[in-house]
């Protein structure tokens, strides 16, 4: 009996330990958010002036956790997003390695926190590679860039009233004729009804607006106008009218508008921070170019698909606002100065 009692006690102790460990693991999992870890952050250029901390685009980001290694690339805003599909315990070490052709590579270590601080928004800074000082080679010529402005074309649609139109139509009928169930009938079903119709076409590129239809002669109280064919305007409109008495005359009038595309040229001046210039343009811009004087000579530099010039390296991104503003960021190349 003593042996059986000891065995039962041992089973109870083991079961209790299992329950306790399971509860502890569930508590840790609930409070630490164990599971797939989403690592996201942004990579900026190192500078004491926050206005010059521009995004570092197309940088390689390698995240290592134990034997797991995942690589991503920063977008035009320096943003990166890396999912780690493995259980990461609190206190585990994550190693970030950043590399870019024009910046100094570096590695940084972070520790994974509990749930409240498990998925922070990481912000890293990257130092530019040192450039060769211009006075090291007396023969080096630095081209001065002055009087810079941005030129672009903005397209917009406009409508202009090019005239109006008037037309008369009739609903021919003889009054007081019983309907006898032969449609169409008057609203009360008693009288034979005639239908008068008219249609108008404003022509390609034109639309009807402010359409007005009215009964102008005859027994107008015994008529009804159907506006479903013209109430929304458009290039083509139609109207029908019911008449359950003697012949009635109707008048249709409308304003004609033409839609046209207008292009206007705009100029703006960019904002400078150190060796960079920044400017924004509306989403419907076209024909963007930079006008500048290089050593006193005025030149025009169209920004084509690669949006780069002989003296700048530019990046383009769209803002997250509803107007989808286009944001340009350009950096001077070696051998040039503002």
Q: Care to describe what's here?
A:
- The chain has 338 residues and is mainly β.
- The protein has three domains: 32-126, Immunoglobulin-like, CATH 2.60.40; 134-155 and 262-337, no CATH class; 157-260.
- 9% of the residues lie in helices and 51% in strands.
- The chain has one helix and 20 strands.
- Strands 8, 10, 13, 16, 17 and 20 form a six-stranded mixed beta sheet that branches.
- A hairpin with a 2-residue loop joins strand 5 (93-100) and strand 6 (103-111).
- The radius of gyration is 38 Å and the shape is flat.
- Mean pLDDT is 83; it is low at 27-33.
Quick structural summary:
This protein is mostly beta strands. The protein has one helix spanning 2-32; strands at residues 37-45, 60-65, 68-73, 79-84, 93-100, 103-111, 121-126, 143-171, 194-201, 206-217, 223-226, 236-243, 248-268, 271-273, 276-281, 285-294, 297-302, 312-318, 326-332, 336-337.
């Amino acid at each position: 009996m003593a042996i059986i009692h000891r065995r039962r006690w041992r089973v109870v102790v083991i079961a209790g330990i299992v329950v306790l460990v399971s509860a502890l693991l569930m508590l840790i999992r609930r409070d630490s958010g164990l599971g797939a870890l989403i690592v996201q952050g942004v990579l900026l250029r190192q500078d004491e002036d926050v206005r010059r901390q521009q995004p570092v685009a197309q940088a390689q980001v390698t995240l290592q956790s134990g034997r797991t290694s995942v690589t991503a690339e920063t977008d035009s805003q320096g943003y990166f997003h890396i999912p780690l599909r493995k259980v990461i315990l609190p206190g585990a070490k994550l190693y970030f390695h950043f590399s870019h052709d024009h910046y100094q590579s570096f590695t940084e270590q972070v520790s994974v926190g509990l749930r409240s601080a498990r998925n922070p928004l990481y912000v890293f800074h990257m130092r530019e590679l040192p450039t060769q000082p211009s006075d090291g080679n007396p023969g080096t010529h630095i081209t001065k860039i002055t009087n810079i402005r941005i030129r672009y074309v903005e397209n917009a649609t406009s409508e202009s009233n090019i005239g109006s139109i008037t037309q008369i139509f009739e609903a021919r009928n003889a009054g007081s004729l019983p309907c006898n169930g032969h449609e169409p009938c008057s609203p009360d079903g008693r009288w034979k009804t005639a239908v008068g119709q008219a249609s108008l076409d404003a022509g390609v590129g034109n639309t009807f607006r402010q359409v007005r239809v009215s009964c102008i002669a005859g027994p107008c109280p015994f008529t009804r106008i159907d506006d479903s064919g013209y109430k929304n305007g458009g290039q083509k409109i139609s109207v029908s009218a019911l008449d359950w008495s003697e012949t009635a005359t109707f008048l249709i009038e409308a304003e004609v508008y033409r839609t046209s595309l207008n292009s206007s040229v705009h100029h703006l001046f960019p904002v400078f921070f150190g060796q960079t210039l920044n400017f924004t343009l509306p989403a419907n811009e076209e024909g963007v170019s930079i006008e500048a004087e290089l050593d006193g000579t005025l030149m025009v530099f169209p920004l084509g698909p690669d949006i780069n010039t002989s003296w700048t390296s530019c990046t383009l991104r769209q803002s997250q606002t509803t107007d989808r503003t286009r944001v340009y960021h350009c950096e001077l190349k070696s051998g040039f100065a503002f």
